[in-house]
């Protein structure tokens, strides 16, 4: 007799959730139900597809859950996409892997299968590199089309940045994903098609053929209230509507802020915090206690438009080294929607290695949005930002910058000794790379199974035990690909 398929409920149809649902449903051994609180991303059209409109997504015109993260020296606002495709449907599309040393660090923590030699092939298999094709570092047949922004797609601010930094002698980098070429100045690879249109994980993985599979059910508008447990075994989920859905296995993919919130609502988290909210503790684990992010100041500039650039918000990128650390920061202009004939950009500097003590906790009640606190800045942060600021000051003296005619919109003298402190106080920004709230090690095993609870895994940015030295979306894809492989390989 044929065995009944293993029913997996994937909670959260975001960056990782779409990948996981598509990969698991390749096998008839699985029946997959994907539950997403938001709508199908196809229902939003141009605002999500056209990279020129991405800044609109960041100012409230896209389906998103906004959160203010409390911190020192300032609070910052971030969001997670609330739509099929999740944050990959509204992010900056930058497609970086991080460095081999990041993943070797995971393996050194005892997390088998997560060293660079393990994950590199997964990164390669996920992409269809439209510039480099198939090579030892790139793939030509994965679901994600990846290419570098062309010069005629850059905004004038990015052209000035690229040219100015090259004139200062920064090393030109053709492939930012090749650690051997760093540090230097280059162009972000982006997950866009040949016509410079965004390709979210929903578009790349949940193709019409995949959606037509009989063993895959996609339900949008499905807000999961809690994971149901029988003792120490997950039995399914309950939606806010009251509907129960049974499962042989539940995989939570709600992202770094909402995954810990859902686990805690379900009795999995720090016992003292759950007790304080009257929640019965099923597993006392340090959920929501170890969040990392890439943080830094973003100085505002304006210049005369019109802005002919057609590309996305983040194109030319300085990957810098300071303080003896190989790759320490990203510095780049983030262009914004033109305003009354004037174009705007933020000149951002983000440290790539910083503390992991940010938290996600309940608000007044477990039904309120989570309260998030930022990780603290490391004690040597000022010196490290200063190193990057010196390069930005030099850039402001170049012909390329002068030709752009940009004006800094505040009175901070970036060369002054207190410039870093003032910039952090006035212009602190999150790169929105929050990770690590349900890390492998303390909360999950190396197969992303929740310690002490059977039938429950997590697969998204929250599982990262340390933050990679690069943008985080592709890491979430890699994690989902690897967890799907592990689940397919696992005997039931
Ligand atoms: C403005 C911005 C720009 C960024 N730019 C870049 C970039 O250029 N490059 C890069 O690499 N990274 C970027 N990032 C970060 C990157 O996009 C994220 O790290 C990554 O996409 C997170 O993926 P995830 O799978 O962890 O979560 P998400 O993609 O956020 O998915 C979580 C999903 O779960 C759903 N969900 C949540 N709660 C529930 C519930 N209770 N029931 C059902 N569904 C639920 C959500 O609606 C969402 O669809 C950016 C982030 C932001 C906010």
How is the secondary structure organized here?
Elements: E1 6-11, H1 15-24, E2 30-35, H2 46-49, H3 54-61, E3 64-70, E4 76-81, H4 100-108, H5 116-126, E5 127-129, E6 144-148, H6 156-167, E7 172-173, E8 184-187, E9 189-190, H7 201-205, H8 208-211, E10 216-219, E11 224-230, E12 233-239, E13 244-246, E14 249-252, H9 255-265, E15 268-269, H10 271-276, E16 283-284, E17 295-304, E18 316-322, E19 325-339, E20 342-351, E21 359-361, E22 371-373, H11 381-395, H12 399-404, E23 407-408, H13 419-427, E24 428-430, E25 456-458, H14 473-489
Parallel strand pairs: 1-2, 1-14, 2-10, 3-22, 5-6, 7-8, 14-25, 15-16
Antiparallel strand pairs: 3-4, 6-9, 8-18, 11-12, 12-13, 17-20, 17-23, 17-24, 18-19, 19-20, 21-22
Helix pairs in contact: 1-14, 4-5, 5-14
The protein binds flavin-adenine dinucleotide.
Flavin-adenine dinucleotide binds next to helix 1, strand 4, helix 9 and helix 14.
């Amino acid at each position: 007799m044929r065995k009944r398929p293993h029913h997996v409920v994937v909670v959260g149809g975001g960056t990782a959730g779409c990948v996981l649902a598509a990969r698991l449903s390749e096998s008839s051994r699985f029946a997959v139900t994907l539950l997403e609180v938001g709508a199908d991303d196809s229902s939003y059209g141009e605002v999500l597809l056209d990279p020129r409109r991405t800044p609109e997504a960041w100012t409230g015109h896209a389906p998103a859950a906004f959160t203010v993260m409390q911190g020192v020296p300032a609070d910052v606002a971030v969001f997670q996409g609330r739509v099929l495709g999740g944050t990959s449907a509204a992010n900056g599309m930058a497609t970086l892997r991080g460095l081999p040393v990041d993943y070797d660090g995971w393996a050194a923590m005892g997390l088998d299968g997560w060293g660079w030699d393990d994950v590199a092939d997964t990164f390669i298999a996920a992409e269809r590199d439209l510039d480099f094709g198939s090579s030892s570092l790139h793939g030509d047949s994965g679901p994600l089309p990846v290419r570098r922004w062309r010069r005629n797609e850059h905004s004038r601010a990015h052209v000035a940045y690229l040219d100015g930094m090259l004139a200062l002698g920064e090393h030109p980098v053709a492939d930012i994903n090749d650690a051997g070429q760093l540090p230097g100045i280059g162009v972000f690879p982006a997950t866009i098609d040949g016509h410079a249109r965004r390709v979210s994980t929903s578009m790349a993985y949940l193709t019409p053929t995949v959606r037509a599979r009989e063993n895959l059910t996609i339900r949008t508008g499905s807000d999961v209230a809690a994971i149901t447990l029988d003792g120490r075994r997950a039995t399914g989920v309950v939606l806010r509507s009251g509907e129960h859905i049974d499962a042989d296995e539940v995989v939570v993919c709600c992202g770094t802020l909402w995954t810990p919130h859902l686990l805690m609502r379900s009795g999995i988290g720090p016992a003292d915090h759950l007790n304080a909210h009257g929640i019965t503790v099923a597993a006392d684990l340090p959920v929501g206690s170890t969040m990392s992010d890439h943080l830094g100041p973003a100085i505002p500039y304006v210049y005369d438009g019109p802005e002919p650039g057609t590309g996305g918000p983040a194109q030319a990128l300085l990957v810098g080294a300071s303080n003896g650390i190989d790759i320490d920061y990203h510095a780049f202009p983030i262009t914004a929607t033109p305003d009354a004939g004037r174009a705007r950009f933020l000149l951002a500097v983000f440290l790539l290695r910083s503390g992991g003590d940010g938290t996600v906790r309940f608000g007044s009640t477990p039904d309120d949005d989570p309260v998030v606190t930022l990780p603290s800045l490391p004690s040597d942060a000022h010196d490290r930002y200063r190193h990057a600021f010196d390069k930005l000051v030099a850039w402001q003296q170049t012909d390329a910058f002068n030709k752009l005619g940009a004006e800094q919109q505040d009175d901070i003298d970036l060369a002054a000794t207190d410039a870093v402190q003032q910039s952090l106080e006035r212009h602190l920004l999150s790169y929105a790379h929050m990770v690590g709230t349900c890390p492998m090690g303390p909360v999950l095993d190396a197969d992303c199974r929740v310690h002490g609870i059977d039938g429950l895994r997590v697969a998204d940015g929250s599982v990262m035990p340390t933050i990679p030295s690069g943008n985080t979306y592709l890491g979430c894809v890699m994690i989902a690909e690897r967890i799907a492989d592990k689940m397919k390989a696992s005997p039931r």
